[in-house]
Fold this protein.
Amino acid sequence: MAPQHKLILLLAELLREHNPGVEIKKFVQDPAYTDLDKGALRLEGVKVLEDPMAFVEVDEASVVVAIYPIIPAMDVIADVPRPAVIVCHRLPEEEIEW
């Protein structure tokens, strides 16, 4: 499992501990996911969404994790719907393959 997925699971557990009784939804979206990736994530209780459904699911109570996004996803997310937390790490422009 990739480090960003472990981070999502850790954040969900911390949120669950500090917000008992509140449903913590976990979902991911990446066109590069294989069937094996999707199966492993589902086993951990993470829902795999197809593009652009993850954007639709984000609200003001969301924690968004985006590691090396190659689209301007954070620009879209930061403006509307303005999630509670954004964790993002971008590749330097010279390393992005368009």
